[in-house]
Design brief:
It is a single chain. The protein is an alpha+beta fold. Helices cover about 55% and strands about 15% of the residues. The strands form two sheets. Strands 2-3-4-5-8-6-7 form a seven-stranded antiparallel β-sheet. A hairpin with a 3-residue loop joins strand 6 and strand 7. Helix 2 runs parallel beside helix 5, helix 3 packs antiparallel against helix 4 and helix 10 packs antiparallel against helix 13. About 30% of the residues are buried. About 0% of the residues have low confidence.
């Protein structure tokens, strides 16, 4: 029964991905399809994703069942790895999406994967709305103990857990003393790519999370990050943040934090997608030094994008803890938040 439900969900989201492909949103399409491929393989092969999950092994198990092209399955697995680990170049997203759509059209018996009429487009979104309503109706508030590996595969579950974490943080004495409070969590639907819980010092102003730096907790299907973030309206704050990379005390703070294997600097495109992770480094040819040399260009791009679009959809040189999909307990999360709070305070005090 669960497998049938999984396949039903896969059909719906493959249709949505096909629609995104048709509308030339190739990055969004490929990200969804890579996730759907992983879900398809694990569902059909009957693999428990909570126990030492390795996609290669799941593909091999599916091959052993029979009826599949071995080369195609592993090729799609490699595409998935490039997309998930941010190694895919932009001009490959179209190619990868097309390969996934051809696979799913055959395996899920889809009627079509292109040339959607306005009526068909609306029908896809109506089915997504119905799906969201049913999923939301199953969510109940629970006490927060942490995130499980399997939670990452369902952002409705992640939002439920994030709500529980929000309540836990509201009652946490340390955060009461810090002056920070959890803000609202973003709406999660069938087409969402993340769950975002920002912590701010102005809980009565819901828009502040878009205008100022926030200490944020964000989950995608692939990872959980606890980090310093800047919303789409934070033009001046971004520029001031880039200037901090000339501050020796700030660099020392980041360098010390980078000794932790989970702490990284990273770059974002389209709101939440990490495209590169790196550490503070004094080596001339390092990624970090390359970014330092480009700071003036980033400041110019911030101004240009905001003036033209009234929103900034990217970030550079963000910092924080990035946990790949795994079991992450409450203690680890609170410890990471406490460490990030010092960086957040340092940045906020300079603005």
């Amino acid at each position: 029964m669960q497998k049938e439900e999984d396949i039903k969900d896969l059909r719906l989201f493959t249709e949505y991905s096909a629609l995104m492909y048709t509308e030339q949103n190739f990055m969004i399409s490929s990200i969804f399809l890579a996730m759907l491929y992983e879900k398809y393989v694990t569902a059909i092969a009957g693999v428990d994703t909570t126990i030492d999950f390795v996609l290669f092994n799941a593909v091999e198990k599916l091959i052993a069942i029979g009826g599949y092209d071995e080369d195609e399955l592993h090729r799609l697995r490699e595409y998935r790895n490039e997309i998930v680990h941010n190694n895919a170049s932009k001009n490959r997203y179209q190619k990868y999406s097309k390969a996934y759509l051809n696979f799913f059209k055959r395996e899920l018996n889809l009627n079509k994967i292109s040339c959607f009429s306005p009526y068909e487009r609306n029908q896809i979104f109506e089915r997504l709305k119905a799906y969201e309503f049913l999923k939301e109706s199953r969510i109940n508030k629970t006490d927060f103990e942490g995130f499980l590996t399997k939670d990452f595969f369902d952002l409705y579950v992640m939002k439920e857990k994030m709500n529980a974490l929000k309540i836990k943080l509201t009652d946490n004495d340390f955060f009461k003393k810090s002056g920070l409070k959890p803000s609202s969590i973003n709406k999660v639907g069938g087409t969402s790519g993340y769950v975002w819980l920002p912590l701010t010092d102005a809980i009565d102003d819901p828009e502040i999370k878009f205008n100022k730096p926030t200490l944020s907790i964000l989950s995608t299907v692939h990872s959980l990050r606890i980090y310093l973030d800047f919303g789409g309206q934070a033009k001046d704050a971004r520029k001031q943040y880039f200037d901090l990379y000339q501050d020796i005390s700030f660099l020392k703070m980041l360098s010390k934090s980078c000794e932790d294997s989970q702490f990284h600097l990273f770059d974002i495109e389209w709101y939440f997608n990490i495209i590169e992770q790196y550490k503070v480094s004094s080596e001339e040819d390092s990624v970090f030094q390359r970014h330092l040399k480009n700071i003036d260009k980033y400041k110019e791009r911030v101004c240009k994008d905001f003036d033209e679009k009234q929103v900034i959809t990217w970030n550079r040189m963000l910092c924080g803890y990035v946990f790949e999909r795994s079991d992450i307990d409450r203690k680890m999360i609170l410890e990471s938040l406490n460490k990030m709070l010092k960086i957040y305070k340092h940045v906020s005090d300079k603005m």
